[in-house]
Amino acid sequence: MKDVQNFLKDFQKEMNWEITDKNYQESRSSMLNNYMLLTTEVGEVAEEFRSIFTRTSELAEENNISEEQAFKLAKNMHKENVGKELSDCIAYIMKFANYLEIDLNESFYSKMKEVKMRRNKDAG
Ligand SMILES: [Mg+2]
Fold first, then answer.
1. Which of 65, 66, 98, 123 gives 20 to 30 Å between its CA and that of 113?
2. CA of 91 to the centre of ligand 1 (A)
3. Max Cα-Cα span within the chain
């Protein structure tokens, strides 16, 4: 994760896609704009999932195969596009982490540990 975060830091700088940091109003505006872009990308993931479900129905009907078989085929057909949309999401998430100087690698594992502890507490 560290590699990806560092790569994106350089990439976003190179492309001039960083969250601006000149003054509060500009940073606020840039953060809100990037937040909208992130939610747009999350929506694009949903669109890909919808396409998988539509394709599943079409494949099952056209080829007279089970939904399970059709679903497996549809997932494979959309795998590349889902990967692209998930990558777009990661890019925006990392952009926020970089802007706020968050070590996402550290934050991620710490949060997962917290979730695990909470889950174990709930189960007990
Ligand atoms: Mg996208």
1. 98
2. 10
3. 61
Domain count, the chain: 1
Nearest to 71 by CA among 58, 84, 81: 58
Segments forming the whole domain that contains residue 94: 2-123
In angstroms, the CA 124 to CA 121 distance is 5
pTM above 0.85, yes or no: yes
CATH number of the domain at 31, please. Answer: 1.10.287
Q: What is the DSSP letter of 23?
A: S
Enumerate long-range contacts of 49-53, CB under 8 Å, 24 or more apart: 49/82, 51/78, 51/81, 52/77, 52/78, 52/82
pLDDT at residue 111 greater than cutoff 70: yes
